[in-house]
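Per-residue structure
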Amino acid sequence: MGGQGSSQQPEVIHPGEAAQAAVGTAGAGEMMSIANQPIEQYANLATTSALGPAEMQTQQALAARGALQGAQAQQDIQSRVDPMAYAQRQMRLKAATDRLGQLYGQDPTAFTYNAPGVYAVPGTSSLPGLTDLRNQGSAIASQLSTGAVDRSGSNPRLVGPAKPTLPALTQQGTYLV
């Protein structure tokens, strides 16, 4: 391999220098992690405040639908397994309810409860737009710092935006019932 290249020998890295570089790099990484933690928490708060209420409402609506379906299935199962016993229970319940209504002078059907909104899953029209979310995320991400070390791997420091400013969290109109 008789190529004509540089006659300069590669720089030898001594174990002490390698250790110093590793410590400096670890220090820069730790500084970066600590400096960025509040910004990451702020980003989580921004995302949660924008999407959390709809996510919670969706989970609750799906749980309510599941509970309703389970109750309806239980009634259906009872009426199929022993239709006569089911009919008797329903008649006794109606007779007792009618009798209590007579004793207290109340219409038993006046005591119903209906909340169809508990089964409603919010649509995407009530959510902030993806462009808005992305822009807010980019504005927050631009505030992140990076860790740096000098050529020898020592002197860890942070490199970040000159004037850190986080965007104000926009308060979306409520879409919860």
Notes: The first strand starts at residue 146 and ends at 148. Strands lie at 146-148, 157-159.
